[in-house]
Amino acid sequence: MFKAIRNTYRLTKAGATLAWYGVGFVPDYVTLPAPLRILRADERETAAKRQARGERLAKAIRALGPTYIKLGQFLATRPDVVGPHLANALGSLRDRLPPFSVDKAHHEIEAAFNRRWQDVFVEFGPPLAAASIAQVHKAVVRTPGGNTRAVAVKILRPDIEKRFERDLESFYFAAHTAERVSQPMRRLRPVAAVDTLAQSVVLEMDLRLEAAAISEMADNIAKSGDVGFRVPRVDWERTSKRVLTLDWIDGIPLTDIEAVRAAGVDMEALGLTVIQSFLKHAIRDGFFHADMHQGNLFVDPRDGALIAVDFGIMGRLGPKEQRFLAEILYGFITRNYYRASEIHFEAGYVPANQSVAAFGQALRAIGEPIMGRPSEEISMARLLTQLFENTEVFQMKMRPELLLLQKTMVVVEGVARSLDPKLNIWVAAEPVVREWLTGQLGPRAQIRDAVSNVGALAVALKQAPDLIERGAKIVDALDPDKPRETSPQPSRWPIALPLWLATGALLAIAAKLLFP
């Protein structure tokens, strides 16, 4: 009871702050008590008023503090919850906050490594960027050879864990209440959404996990021989749960397009690199940078390579989601909407009681209007917005990992278009998607899978006698009427025969599947 009162008080304060900024953001299908109807969004308002409301919402969220900033960034990935207009407004939300002092940063370093900060870094500069969870400093370290090199040091805000724990408790209370009182909200699974946000925050609170994400992406890039995209190297000796040290990036921030162009960088090639690198990471590796806005991207003027930073928000796709993404994109690229619809059903994203043909028709209505149009008029954002609008019609349950992926694709498209306004995202995506599908579903992949299955079948045949012997022993042990004194063993064939038959049936099924 006390928790309910405490969380109601916290949420009421947050609601009062939003109302003070004149924010309406709750969709009209959500039932609200009379005092909270001031938060109702008016979907009939003009585009200018919607934009102004989005800007007010961003200001209100900054006023509410770090956890709400993260919530706002997360809701930017849920246009099905807040609507496409507010999602776009929240997508521009950057968690710039006042920095904490250098003295506090020194204290965090000394607590993390149990020695003086001067013994960790030769030089340590003032904060360069302060976000909701951490801030970044430029520092200098001494190498084993006696030389020095510049590094970037990211340090968590003092006591940030307590603040997030308190606010997340309120978010869970609100989500459970929404699911209990509103049928439409249950379809949107707000509790699952808060679970995803909480998991993301937990990962961001341990900078060793961010270091591991950078290391994993570096390994994926090296293994595949990718060029044109790099990540900074982790200094593991100077990295802990609350401190992350990376190589300093001497690059041009992508926020300064004119400086990039003045450096002689091929803008069209760079735009293509942005799109194709993201798709390779998502489709090929199932592991992608989920916050690829201009502020997290730099360009090396020496070779035009793209360098990503800030790996606090990462996306991960399983094999099923990787194939789903590749085939969906390929379905739109080749205008095979029925196949794209089938993939939605095969992946379980659309309930089986819906019509594959009808959903394919809905996808055609989304895809056809953009086909044949000038490349600068083709918008992934518009396509995704329409796809979200179909979720309720076809009773689709939104998958958080796919929502994060889709929102990131919109951001990536925007970044790429800022470099090359005429970039056609479908043309850029086609070779990446085709290469992956060929590798996974083509003749070589079938041969590889067949060889793998033959090996599994051979192992099963080899183990079959042992399995039968063990099965017979278990049956003997479980037989309450079996005499326990030492005596000649009766034949086990009556017991073993069903096991042999079952094993043979399984092997026959496996062989049939393997060699149809």
UniProtKB/TrEMBL annotation:
Transmembrane segments: 493-515
Pathway(s) annotated for this protein in UniProt: Cofactor biosynthesis; ubiquinone biosynthesis [regulation]
Any one GO molecular function term: ATP binding
Statement: the UniProt record of this protein carries the keyword Endoplasmic reticulum: no
Protein kinase domain mapped to chain residues: 122-461
UniProtKB keywords: ATP-binding, Cell inner membrane, Cell membrane, Kinase, Membrane, Nucleotide-binding, Transferase, Transmembrane, Transmembrane helix, Ubiquinone biosynthesis
InterPro entries in the cross-refs: ABC1_dom, Kinase-like_dom_sf, Prot_kinase_dom, UbiB, UbiB_bact, UbiB_kinase
GO biological process: ubiquinone biosynthetic process
Family in the record: Belongs to the protein kinase superfamily. ADCK protein kinase family.
Annotated protein name in UniProt: 2-polyprenylphenol 6-hydroxylase
